Amino acid sequence: MAAGVHTPAAATERGVWTGIAVSPGTASGAARMVLHPAEAAHLKAGDILVAPSTDPGWTPLFLRASAIVMESGGFLSHGAIVAREYGIPAVANVPGILKALEDGEAIAVDGSTGRVMRGRGETHGARAAS
After folding, report:
1. Do residues 68 and 23 touch, judged by C-beta distance below 8 A?
2. pLDDT at 121
3. Is 6 labeled as catalytic in the residue annotation?
4. C-alpha–C-alpha distance, residues 70 and 80, integer Å
5. At CA 45, angle to CA 44 and CA 49, rounded to 5?
6. At CB < 8 A and 24+ separation, what contacts does 81-86 make?
7. 108 strand-pairing partners
8. In whole angstroms, what is the distance from residue 35 CA to residue 53 CA?
9. Is 86 helix (H, G, I), strand (E, B) or coil?
10. According to DSSP H, which parts of 9-130 are helical?
């Protein structure tokens, strides 16, 4: 395997997924599954945006999200770059996360370690830089 290549794992332990840490910080909140930016009316301020991937059409949604989780992408993907610019924790390359979580389920995101955890974790709804 080439250096720098990340092979994502399924849930490494019950309710914990590991992807690529693309924007540092931690946040917790309600997971909002959004398959297309036009279908994001249910995304409220402080929710965690869970998406297949993002492109420039998704950017306005980042202003409402406390964190971003993407099924695909990497350190140089659109979602990663915009999350870093906005100071939003983000994890990319978490295949299957859209099917593994329920819309509105409480999750915690650690953009510094690339972990997505079921439940609120230790962040208690806040966004914090690491």
Report:
1. yes
2. 62
3. no
4. 9
5. 70
6. 82/54, 83/22, 83/23, 83/111, 84/22, 84/23, 86/62
7. 28, 117
8. 9
9. helix
10. 59-62, 78-86, 97-100
